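Quick check before the chapter quiz. The format below is the same one you will see on the exam, so make sure you can read both the input and the output lines.
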Amino acid sequence: MAPEEHRKQMVRAVVASTVGTSIEWYDYFLFGTMAALVFPHLFFPKSDPLTGTLNNYAIFFVGFLARPIGAWLFGTYGDRIGRKATLIATLLVMGIATFLIGVMPTYSSIGLWAAVLLVIFRLCQGIGVGGEWGGSVLMSMEWGSQKRKGFLGSWPQFGVPVGLLLSTAITALTVTVSGSATFEAWAWRIPFLLSIVLVAVGLYIRLGILETPVFNSIVAANRVEPRPITQVIKRNWREIILSALLRLPEQAPFYLFTTFVFTFGLAATKLDRPFLTWAVSAAACVSFFTIPLFGHLSDRVGRKTIYMAGIVVMAIWGFVYFGLYSTAIPAVVFIVIAVSLIPHDMQYGPQASLIAESFTGRLRYSGASLGYQLASIVAGGPAPYIATRIWAGETFLPAKNPYMISLYILLCCIIGFAAVALLKDRSALDHTMEYDEQEPMEAEGMRRRAMG
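Here is the expected output.
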């Protein structure tokens, strides 16, 4: 392929990946926002407020439990039949499940069966997003150059703030226009129903891209792995575990700053729903710039260096965030929420390439997806639930003390820092070639340099 044509395909792949992840994350975050705002009243009306909130965060967690299943399922197909076809399937699974939430009955119509349906649709969302991330990152990274892996890999991550902004802004607009009573009665369905339009746009864009040259070369060399999940667990179990643990200081705080923020704000500061949703929307706008920035810096300074710096900043920020938030001064709270994701973005920008480049090409979709999505079980999924229990005094920690949640963030940072330190740096290896062909040469080079 001519260099100019290759560059055009690279741009198309980056756009398709970013648009697709934006839509998927819109669907996924929308559930979390609604779980904090209205789902307790709609699906658990007979529970007390605390129990209703905990029940909804438990269903929220179900989506995270399903994400490793999506990673296993779609990772297998992504390494066997290709990145493009798999990404189309993940978009459909997520979009249809989200649309169905918008038309499903609530407790007032069918009782507890409504909660059962909600769990099923949340499982489908988790499976869809579990397969989406790995393919989107590989679609961007494998079309790109060796020197820009960090920057190109950050663009699918850019879909997170886009999805967050869309979900919170549309929710805020719906609440503002309809009013709280109408919103709780039926207008909450509107953001879910809009998902089907976004999915149609995403499908149109993704159908127009080509398969990555890395996967095509694997097919041409007859090196497609028939059992990629089994093989990558056998070969790269250490990288999978470390990839999951290094996400603790990034993913757990993210869901505290974007989902638990509503529970804390409504309970501790008495600020209203529109104010909080607009503040989180502002945070997403800031991430538009900071995620690509830190991805770019990781190509210049080093991925592990930027990532570990982000963890240190997050460890400190957890205390600053809750200290300022607790003042309940509207201007202060808005600014704190608006900049809350910067320490997260210091990690999230270089994260895609840091994880993906830990796995060789024929196992990359499966390995990167598993490592990334396993974090959902220990980090993002339980974070709002744990924080709510800490705040309510349902643990051994003092109740109504936000700094106890800051300690939870600090613990995540300590574990994540150790995981990054233990992860082998493979950024210098050529991602277009199989690592088992390069690493013996790299080891030999290191041995010769050591011998002088």
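If your answer matched, good. The mean pLDDT is 87.
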